[in-house]
What does this fold into?
Amino acid sequence: MTSSPRVTVWNEYRHELQDAHIGAIYPEGIHGAIAAGLREHNLEVRTATLDEPEHGLTEATLAETDVLIWWGHKAHREVDDAIVERVKARVLGGMGLVVLHSGHFSKIFKSLMGTTCDLKWREGGDKERLWVVAPGHPITEGIGEYIELEEEEMYGEHFDIPVPETLVFVSWFTGGEVFRSGCCYSRGAGKIFYFRPGHETLPTYHNKEIQRVIANGVRWAAPTHQVTRNFGNRQPLEAIGR
Ligand code: ZN
It folds into this structure.
């Protein structure tokens, strides 16, 4: 399709406005930091936030979006069900979706997975080491054997998700837990990448390797040319029987 996918970064944008410490880490919002990282990778990026009309996800915006990135945490329940259905229809129709960190509990991710998407967690100063377990996968391009984050929130197994079609990263934490931290799925004509890091009190989205993985995830999830999908009752292409 397009050589440079059009990206919309969606963020609930509440922590940054309500907590000065978080606002200092992300003065342009988490969406602003993610968007800046993607622009360095030559992607065409716009942003949208929860408190905009229709959460910034109008039919027109989604129609011009090849890949949607989703960050949410404390306000999942405030996302309008009708907008979730609109996004879901676009994903099933071919729009890519990259779900980050606490987005595991978003309405859109749970709806597309069909499971609780629950997990273990701890804010305790763990180091995270994300091991590449799918070397050669496009999402790992430019990344070494692993990415190390000096401090991150811990997410631990069991992560209640469907078995990923491709598992790209597995995380290890200082406290001993492990987690499937980079998971690929397809739903309908759309591709979905879940990527774990990005707790709001830490500068993770300023990390160049994390920015690269998100950019790679966008390019992987972008729609490719597809044969038109037809459904319903059909006349046979050949004479059947006698
Ligand atoms: Zn978190």
The pocket of zinc ion is lined by residues 101-102, 153, 199 (CB under 6 Å). The mean pLDDT is 97. The chain has seven helices and nine strands.
